[in-house]
Write a structure and sequence with these properties.
The complex is a heterodimer of chains A (588) and B (84).
Chain A: H1 7-17, H2 23-42, E1 47-54, E2 57-64, H3 66-85, H4 92-110, H5 114-133, H6 138-169, H7 184-196, H8 205-209, H9 215-236, H10 241-260, H11 264-285, H12 288-319, H13 335-349, H14 355-369, H15 373-399, H16 415-433, H17 435-439, H18 453-472, E3 483-484, H19 488-539, H20 547-561, H21 566-587
Helix pairs in contact in A: 1-2, 1-4, 2-3, 3-4, 3-9, 3-12, 3-16, 4-5, 4-9, 5-6, 5-9, 6-7, 7-9, 9-11, 9-12, 10-11, 10-15, 11-12, 11-14, 11-15, 12-13, 12-14, 12-16, 13-15, 13-16, 14-15, 14-16, 15-18, 19-20
Chain B: H1 3-12, H2 14-38, H3 45-48, H4 52-76, E1 77-78
Classes of the chains: A mainly alpha (588), B mainly alpha (84).
Chain lengths: 588, 84
C-alpha cells in the first residue's frame, strides 16, 4: 500500500462525531473506530511515511517497522476490547477522552523523531487524566491532579533532554542510543520515559491514580501509558544496565505492595509496576531474546491486565466496592466474572497454556542465558508473589473466603462487559496455546520454545508450592482496611509541609515586610519626594527643570511593580526561565 | 453451564481434594528428580539441584508474606483517612 493513513486519525476524528450520534448507531460506531484501525494496521507495510519539515526539523509521523507494529497491533486490539467493555457508558466525554488517549498512544508509537513523540506524549497525559476525573468524587479529582502534575514533570524531563539532545546531535531523530556515549541529554530523556513506565522511584503516580479511575477508564489506563513507555525504552535505550537493575527491583517492589494492599484495583495497579518491571529488565539486558521477550510480554500483559481490571471493575460496578475486606463469597452471584478473572490471574502468573507462560519466560530465560542469576532469582521471587497476590489472595478473599453467602448481593455485570471479558480470556488462552502467533510479530528473529520439560517442571513447582504455602499461611494474609504509604508520601505530605511553611513563615514575613514598607518605605519615598520637591522648588528651581517630574515618575514605576497581579509575576518567571535556558543552551 | 454446582461439589469434598493435591505435589517433585537424572546438567547450580524450584517456592513465598506483613505493620499501614 503506497498510501499510509495514520490510525490515530480514526480515533481523533471519529470520536468528535460521537456527540452527534445516538443509540445503537453510536454503539456500532464506538466499535467501528477500532475495527477500522485494525484493518489499517493489518495493511501497513514497513517504511517511513508522513515526513514533514517544520522549523528546520524533520517530523516523522509514520515509522512503520516490526517494533512499532507489534505495539500498534496490541493497541488497536485493546482499543476494541476497551470500547466493548465501556459500551454502556453514557458520557460522550468519557469516550472522547478514551479515543484521544488511544490515538495519541498510537501517535507516539509511530513517531520517528523525539518531537513527534513528545507531542503525542503530552496529549496522552492530558486525555488520560479525564478517565480518572470522570469518576467525579473528591478522591479521584485529587488523584487526577496529582497524576497530571507528575506527568507534566515527566514531560519536562523529556523536553529538557530533547533540547539538549538537539544541540548535541543536531537533529531529533529517535534512534537507538548507545550506553557508552550517553550523556545528560540521553539520561534526561530516559528519565522522562522511565516516569511513564513507572520505574522506581518515579512510580507512585500509578497506584495513586489508577484505582481512583472510572471502572471503564482503568481498563484503558492500565494498557497504554506504561506500554507506550516500554516501547520508547525498547526503541531508544536497549542495553542500558540501569534499566536491568531498576526493572528487576520493580518486579519485586510491585508484588511486595500487592501482598499487603486491600483494594483489588490497587493490588492490580501494583502488579502493573511488577510486570512492567520484567519488560524494563528485558530491555536493560538488551539481547535479542530479552527485547523480544519485553515486546511479547507487553503484548500479553496488555490483554491479561485489562482482563483483570475488567473483572475487578465488574465487581466494583455491581457490588459498589473493590475492597477485599468488604468482599467475600462473590462466586455465588458472579460466577462468570470470577472465571474470567481467574483466567487473567493464571495468565499473569504464568500457568502453562496461558499467555504469561510464553512471554514472561522469554525474559527470565534471557537473564539465565546472560548468566544474570541474581536478576533471575528476583524475577522468580516476583513470579511467586504474582500468583500469591493476584491469583490466590484476591481470588480467595473476593470470591470465596469463609463466607457461605455473598458479602454483598450483586449480579453479573451487563452483557457487553461479559463479552469483553470473554473475548479477552479467549485471546489469553490462544496466545498460551499457539505462542507462534505472537512470536511471529516480534522484532527480532529468535527461536524460542516455551514448552520444554524443564520449563514446565520449573513453573509448576513454583506455582504449586506457592499455593501450598498460601493455604498454610492464609490467616496472615487476611486483608486489612488500611492504605499503605508509598513514594507519593513525599509530594502529598511535602506539598502540605510547603503550605504550612508558606502559612507560618513566608506569609508572616510578607505581612511584616508589607507593614515595614507601608510605614517606612512610603514615608521615606514621601519624605524624599517632599525634600526633592522642596529642593527643586527652592534651590534649583528653574536650573534643572523637570526633576520633580522624574521623582514622580519613579514613584509610579514602583507602584506599577507592586500591582500584585499574578499574571505579571508568572510572565516575569517565564522570562527569567527563558533567559536561563538561553544561557544553558548557548553556553554549551 | 452449571459452574456453581462444580464449585459446591468441590467444597463438599474438601478432604478428598486436599489428598489429591498432596499427591500432585509429591508427584511434581518426583518428576523433577526424574528429569534431572535424564537430562544433562545445565550451566548453573540452580539447574543441578533436585527440586530447586520447590525449595525456592516454599522459602520465597513464606518470606514474602512474613516480611511484607511485618514491614506493613511496622510503618507502612495507615488508616484510610491518613492523607485527609
Amino acid at each position: 500500500m503506497d498510501r499510509w493513513v495514520h490510525p490515530a486519525l480514526f480515533f481523533f476524528l471519529g470520536s468528535l462525531l460521537l456527540p452527534f450520534l445516538k443509540g445503537k448507531v453510536k454503539k456500532f460506531f464506538l466499535l467501528f473506530i477500532p475495527a477500522l484501525s485494525m484493518v489499517d494496521v493489518a495493511m501497513m507495510k514497513p517504511g517511513i511515511y508522513g515526513s514533514y519539515t517544520f522549523l528546520k526539523m524533520t517530523l516523522i509521523f509514520g515509522r512503520v517497522d516490526k517494533l512499532s507494529l507489534v505495539f500498534a497491533w496490541v493497541f488497536v486490539i485493546m482499543a476494541f476490547l476497551g470500547a466493548l467493555y465501556a459500551l454502556h457508558v453514557k458520557k460522550d466525554g468519557h469516550h472522547i477522552a478514551g479515543s484521544f488517549y488511544v490515538g495519541s498512544s498510537l501517535g507516539a508509537v509511530f513517531g520517528g523523531d523525539y518531537f513527534t513523540v513528545f507531542i503525542f506524549w503530552e496529549i496522552m497525559a492530558f486525555s488520560s487524566v479525564f478517565l480518572v476525573w470522570y469518576r467525579a468524587n473528591k478522591r479521584s479529582i485529587d488523584a487526577g491532579f496529582r497524576y497530571l502534575l507528575v506527568h507534566i514533570f515527566g514531560g519536562l524531563l523529556f523536553f529538557t533532554g530533547m533540547m539538549l539532545y538537539y544541540y548535541k546531535v543536531g537533529n531529533l531523530l529517535f534512534l537507538a542510543n548507545q550506553p557508552g556515549n550517553a550523556g545528560l541529554a540521553e539520561y534526561l530523556i530516559l528519565a522522562g520515559f522511565a516516569l511513564n513506565a513507572a520505574v522506581l522511584p518515579l512510580h507512585a503516580w500509578l497506584p495513586d491514580a489508577y484505582p481512583e479511575a472510572t471502572v471503564e477508564g482503568a481498563v484503558f489506563l492500565c494498557a497504554f501509558t506504561t506500554k507506550t513507555a516500554v516501547y520508547v525504552l525498547a526503541r531508544g535505550f536497549a542495553g542500558f544496565e540501569v534499566l536491568a537493575i531498576l526493572g528487576t527491583a520493580m518486579t519485586v517492589y510491585g508484588v511486595f505492595y500487592a501482598v499487603i494492599e486491600n483494594d483489588m484495583r490497587r493490588v492490580l495497579a501494583y502488579h502493573i509496576i511488577s510486570q512492567v518491571g520484567y519488560m524494563v529488565a528485558g530491555i536493560g539486558i538488551g539481547t535479542a531474546l530479552a527485547v523480544n521477550g519485553a515486546c511479547a510480554h507487553a503484548f500479553a500483559h496488555i490483554l491479561y491486565k485489562a482482563l483483570l481490571f475488567m473483572g475487578a471493575g465488574a465487581v466494583l460496578y455491581m457490588a459498589g466496592t473493590a475492597k477485599l475486606s468488604e468482599l467475600g463469597g462473590m462466586y455465588k452471584c458472579m460466577p462468570l466474572t470470577m472465571i474470567f478473572y481467574i483466567v487473567g490471574a493464571v495468565s499473569i502468573s504464568g500457568f502453562p497454556l496461558f499467555s504469561g507462560f510464553v512471554s514472561k519466560s522469554m525474559i527470565v530465560a534471557s537473564a539465565h542465558e546472560a548468566g544474570r542469576l541474581n536478576l533471575l532469582a528476583l524475577m522468580e521471587l516476583a513470579g511467586i508473589g504474582t500468583f500469591l497476590s493476584v491469583g490466590l489472595k484476591v481470588t480467595y478473599f473476593a470470591f470465596f473466603g469463609k463466607r457461605e453467602t455473598p458479602a454483598i448481593a450483586a449480579e453479573e455485570p451487563p452483557k457487553n462487559m461479559l463479552w469483553a471479558m470473554g473475548i479477552t480470556s479467549a485471546l489469553c488462552f490462544i496466545i498460551g496455546v499457539y505462542p507462534q502467533v505472537l512470536y511471529d510479530l516480534l522484532p527480532f528473529p529468535v527461536e524460542y520454545r516455551p514448552y520444554t520439560a524443564s520449563h514446565l517442571s520449573e513453573m509448576l513447582q513454583l506455582l504449586s508450592f506457592t499455593g501450598l504455602v498460601f493455604f498454610l499461611l492464609v490467616k496472615k494474609l487476611v486483608p486489612e482496611d488500611k492504605i499503605n504509604l508509598d513514594m507519593d508520601y513525599v509530594y502529598r505530605k511535602g506539598g502540605r509541609l510547603f503550605m504550612k511553611l508558606d502559612e507560618k513563615v513566608f506569609a508572616v514575613i510578607d505581612t511584616v515586610w508589607g507593614e515595614i514598607y507601608r510605614t517606612l518605605g512610603l514615608r521615606v519615598l514621601f519624605n524624599e519626594a517632599e525634600f526633592l520637591y522642596g529642593f527643586d522648588k527652592k534651590v534649583i528651581d528653574g536650573v534643572v527643570d523637570g526633576s520633580a517630574l522624574s521623582v514622580r515618575g519613579v514613584g509610579s514605576v514602583v507602584r506599577r511593580l507592586q500591582t500584585g497581579r499574578i499574571q505579571v509575576y508568572i510572565g516575569c518567571a517565564v522570562l527569567i526561565l527563558f533567559l536561563v535556558l538561553w544561557f544553558v543552551v548557548y553556553g554549551m | 453451564m452449571n459452574i456453581l454446582g462444580y464449585i459446591e461439589f468441590l467444597r463438599r469434598h474438601m478432604k478428598t481434594l486436599k489428598w489429591v493435591l498432596m499427591v500432585y505435589l509429591v508427584a511434581l517433585v518426583l518428576l523433577d528428580v526424574l528429569l534431572h537424572l535424564e537430562e544433562a546438567p545445565g550451566h548453573f547450580f540452580i539447574d543441578r539441584i533436585w527440586a530447586f524450584w520447590t525449595i525456592f517456592g516454599i522459602i520465597g513465598c513464606s518470606l514474602l508474606i512474613r516480611v511484607a506483613k511485618a514491614i506493613a505493620h511496622l510503618f507502612l499501614s495507615k488508616n484510610e483517612d491518613y492523607y485527609g
